[in-house]
Amino acid sequence: MDKKLASLFGLDTFLSVSHAIIQEADEGIIVTDSEGHILLANPAFETVTGYTQEEVLGKKPNILRSGLHDRTFYENMWETIRDHGVWKGEIWNKRKNGELFVEWLTIKAVYDVAGNPTHYVAIFSDVTQHKRTMEQLARLSNYDLLTNVPNRQLFTKRLQHLLEMARRYNQQLAILFLDLDRFKYINDELGHYNGDVLLKKVANRLKKLLRTKDTLARIGGDEFVVILPKLKDVQEAVSIAEQMIESLQAPFILNGKDVYMSASIGISMYPNDGDDGETLLRRADRAMQKAKESGRNRFELYTTKLDYQSEVVMLENYLRKALERNELFICYQPIVNMKTKKIEALEALMRWKQPNIGFVSPAQFIPLAEETGLIVPITKWLFEQACIHMKAIHQFAPHIKIGINISAVHFQQDDFVEQLSTIVKKNDVHPRFFKLELTESTIMPNAEESVQKLVQLKQCGFKLAIDDFGTGFSSLSYLHRFPIDILKIDQSFIRRLSLYSDDATIVSTIIMMAHHLHLSVVAEGVETEQQYEFLNKQQCDMVQGYYIAKPMPIDEVQHFIQEWDEYINER
Fold it and tell me: Which residues are in the EAL domain (predicted)?
């Protein structure tokens, strides 16, 4: 290739260009003879190594050896060059002033026409700073900058490794989850700088209590975790926790003043309390929370009794974020008119899929939403979505109504009627297409006030239904005073129709009574043809349940209604 270039440019020009490239290159370059004596060194070589060309001419590159590589390293290097004509790799060398540096080196053999090596060319780049930067980045990614103990990432890696060892050798391992008590107060009172100093002192004090094989990590603001591998029993972990609590009780000196600190510690054990790191950490955290609730400055061992309480708290935290994270969605269950056999309405049912725990049953999250007051923003969101869906549904089924369940917590708000009126007006949907479903227990406790609100809702145009009728404690004398349109028979009566004649009598009576009061009746939970035929004979107005269809997402509604209409028309 060189001969072709030389003939193309001319030998003098080619040599001139080659010399310029060597002299101006940022990489260090040396050329040796076949015996390894240096014949040429460029300015970049002088800059990196500190040697001038005059100082190295005739000498071998081993003057740069750092002593960090053994004889085998160099033997393997030259074996590769002999076999392949080139070697590339990272190597530590030494500058003239004795300073070590790391370089990325390429050595290439130059052959004569007979295939014998006549020269060697070495090209290298000083990657010391890059190496240091990478090492620093690696440390930054694995260690807490403030306390210089492992961070969550390195903690997770070590825990995984130590768990594998514990499984292999049938050993016990403990996780200690430590949270400083009242740290926020101290941080606010003394300032963040002193808070940081305190965290450093805490970490140093804790490290002194641990064995070399133990790991102390900081995973949050004032949260530390400890891995104790190779334990004989839980008492060893308890002993370390007691020492930590006692150690932290001694005052810390900040700005010449004594500052007192305590900690709450939770302990979980492998394999009794979990088989994986995430479970063990979560359960140690639960035990720590129990320690705080029990008065702080103490430790608690994880027990299964802590699970339920913690799950409720966790579920509440997830639920508070569900709306903003778009985790909630609506499914619609069709309601069939038994005379026309057409789909007359859809009941909007809230559903929740939480990314970490999957689908959460409405029986779990609806009561929790009511208890925490979250049911109000959730129901308002549902109403907004139902308005949007209503417009889409009316493109192909303009008669369809949507039923929405109303919580007692929401209904009792003073501006409840105004809230719903504002939503339908904003979305330009007429209230007559909405059925508000309220249970007896929602409206009976304050019947007089309930009547007033129900009248206002009727005046707005909303349809009103009593949901789960028959399970509450309503007075029939009040029933005729409520401006309602529909009674929904609770599914518990429908489910037992074929088993108990009394339930069949109750259902028949409810239907007859409702019709005398000029109310429509919807039977919930219809699952069999037998139940459907019984209700048909009793002249029930509408039915819903799995016999008709399961609840479905909005994008399946149109297809279902169209298929249902085709089926009915064919009959």
Answer: 312-565
pLDDT in the model for residue 517: 85
Q: What is the largest CA-CA distance in the chain?
A: 118
Superfamily of domain 142-302: Reverse transcriptase/Diguanylate cyclase domain (3.30.70.270)
- Rounded Cα–Cα distance for residues 467 and 465 (Å): 6
Helical residues (DSSP H) of 323-415, grouped into ranges: 362-372, 375-393, 408-411
Cβ-contact 278, 152 below 8 angstroms:
no
DSSP 172-228: EEEEEEEEETTHHHHHHHH-HHHHHHHHHHHHHHHHTTS-TT-EEEE-SSSEEEEEE
Q: Which residues make Cβ contacts (< 8 Å) with residue 10, sequence separation at least 6? A: none
| Average per-residue pLDDT for the chain | 88
User: What is the pairing mode between strands 552-553 and 542-543?
Assistant: unpaired
| Predicted local distance difference test score (pLDDT) of residue 106 | 93
Same fold, 142-302 and 331-350+372-570: no
334: preceding bond cis by omega (within 30 degrees): no
Average pLDDT over residues 78-105: 91
Rounded to an integer, the average pLDDT of 31-49 is: 91
Q: How far apart are CA 467 and CA 406, in angstroms?
A: 10
Residue 317 confidence (pLDDT)? 86
Given this structure, which CATH class describes domain 331-350+372-570? alpha beta
227/216 Cα distance (integer angstroms): 7
295 phi/psi in degrees, rounded to 5? 125, -5
Enumerate the domain spans of the chain: 3-132, 142-302, 331-350+372-570
Given a cut of 70, is residue 290 above it in pLDDT?
yes
Contact indicator for 360, 306 with CB cutoff of 8 Å: no
Rounded to the nearest 10 degrees, the angle between the axes of helix 305-322 and helix 362-372 is 80
Q: Which helix (H) or strand (E) holds 333?
A: strand 328-337
- Asked if residue 115 has pLDDT above 70, the reply is yes
pLDDT at 8 over 80: no
Across 207-219, b (16+ Cβ under 10 Å) vs e yields eebbeeebbbbbb
| Cα–Cα distance list, 135 to 68, 130, 131 (Å) | 18, 9, 6
Residue whose tokens read 């290739």: 1
**523 in the Ramachandran plot: left (φ > 0), alpha (ψ -120 to 50) or beta?**
beta
Q: What is the band of 39 on the pLDDT scale with cuts at 50, 70, 90?
A: very high
The phi and psi torsions of 8 (rounded to 5 degrees) equal -70, -45
pLDDT higher than 50, residue 344: yes
Determine which of 76-85, 132-141, 254-263, 461-470 has the lowest per-residue pLDDT on average: 132-141
The yes-or-no verdict on residue 227 having pLDDT over 70 is yes
Share of the chain above pLDDT 70, in %: 92
Contact 323, 381 (CB under 8 A): yes
Q: Give CB contacts under 8 A, 24+ apart, made by 555-564.
A: 557/332, 557/346, 557/389, 557/393, 558/392, 558/393, 558/396, 558/397, 560/334, 561/334, 561/343, 561/396, 561/397, 561/400, 562/396, 564/334, 564/342, 564/343
The model's pTM is: 0.51
Q: For residue 311, is pLDDT > 80?
A: no
